[in-house]
Amino acid sequence: MAAKRVDEQEDVGELVANLPVAELRTVLSSAVDRHLDVERHLRLVAARATGDVVGLRREVDRGLRTRRFLAYRESSEWARAAQPVVDELRLVVAGSPSRDLVVLLERAVGHVVKVIHHADDSNGTIGDLGRGLLDLHAQACDALVADPLKLAAWMVRFSCEDQDFFEVDPVRYAEALGEPGLTAYRRAIAARDGQRVFAVRWARERLAVLDGDTQAIVSLLGGDLSSPHQFIRVCEAMAELGRFDDVLAWARRGITETQGWQVAQLYDLACDVHDRHETPVEVLALRREQHERMASAGTYRALRRAADALDAWEVECAAARTALRERDRGELVEALLGDGDADAAWAVATEDPAWDPAGRRLRLAQARETTRPDEALAWYLQIADDELEETGRPAYARAVAVLKHARRAAEAAGEGAAFAATLAALRERHRRRPTLIAMLDKAALS
């Protein structure tokens, strides 16, 4: 009988289930001797099974600390090796949260913070571990097992002394803190006024949200209300409190009183409220106003979605396109391509020979190819020539990809012989670029 192929072999889980316990112990002991990560996993499982927080602490100290500097690649490797410790803590939090476990999680987060201080964590893998541990800490505290006063002290110390990578939100911890803990937290934050300004200000902002204090929210988050961002922060706080009429009022005020690209988010916030209230006519009015004020392909799409919800796009379409044409012809081309109206997009792009659609030329050529491959072919060849103004493999790869499109368009247009001649001339023109010639050969562009 022929041996089983690899993909037909028995599932490892089935193998484990069918092995005698004595054999499994032998295999596991051998793996522990040869692999540190297996030993660590075994110790973590054993500590969880017995409820041994001391054992868990020992593995947390072993798995979440290092004295060496971690370069970029090493940071990712270290984070992957540490992840099983976090996974095991997650199981403990789900099964048996306790006061000792809360303290252990605080210790674990502290270890990770120290590692970040001497690591290149540009890709955020170690930071993700920290956020995961903080999430577990909050979940453990949800069981109301933490000492409220000690929890408040740790939150303030962690935010205002230990680090500035993460925040711990008093709104999230309000139930675990209770009145005694919140009182202690407020006093500690007030005592630090003027210190670690960002951390203290952020804590005061979150306390204002916790209290539902409109005046404090506007003062702390809105500031002088001179920019869209300040109105956005006030709206987000009101949404968190479920005060959607206030969200709408502050969004409308910000739309009226401020300028800039962030005003778009205020329109989004206002439309979200109208969606919640099931008033699509109001959404359409806002999206029309937004498009007239700051027309772009994005506002066009938003207006179309709002109009489609009311079967009103035929009424809105012409004015929407006119607003785009007057503001930015390139954005109009983008919108028309998004509508699938390739002919209209092509007409706009070619009505003025001096106008260059820039980065949209390839999309236009691809859209035009289905109906007029001869016109698409000319554009493909121009795009390829433009790409070959640069040297280097990335530029060559882009040019080759475009030339493949050009070959297809030439065949569809019945211009295969002319394309072959053009390609031969291109090869001759760039004969001193061996890498390009090799890439053309590989793509059968000869």
Quick recap of the structure?
This protein has 446 residues and is mostly helical. The protein contains 24 helices and no strands.
List keywords for this structure.
75% helix, 446 residues, mainly alpha, extended
Descriptive account of the structure:
The protein is mainly alpha-helical and 446 residues long. Helix content is 75%, strand content 0%. It has helices at 12-18, 21-34, 36-50, 53-63, 72-95, 99-117, 125-142, 148-162, 174-191, 197-211, 214-222, 228-240, 244-257, 263-276, 280-293, 297-308, 313-327, 329-338, 342-350, 361-369, 373-387, 393-413, 416-429, 434-442. It is extended and about 80 Å long. The two termini are 49 Å apart.
What is the strand and helix layout of this fold?
Elements: H1 12-18, H2 21-34, H3 36-50, H4 53-63, H5 72-95, H6 99-117, H7 125-142, H8 148-162, H9 174-191, H10 197-211, H11 214-222, H12 228-240, H13 244-257, H14 263-276, H15 280-293, H16 297-308, H17 313-327, H18 329-338, H19 342-350, H20 361-369, H21 373-387, H22 393-413, H23 416-429, H24 434-442
Q: What structural category arises from helix and sheet content?
A: mainly alpha
* Spatial separation of the terminal alpha carbons: 49 Å
The number of helical runs is 24
Q: Which word captures the global form? A: extended
The portion of residues forming beta strands comes to: under 5%
Mean pLDDT: 91
What is the C-alpha radius of gyration, as a whole number of Å? Answer: 31 Å
Low-pLDDT sequence parts: 1-8
Can you count the beta strands? 0
Helix content: over 70%
The SSE order reads HHHHHHHHHHHHHHHHHHHHHHHH
Largest sheet: none
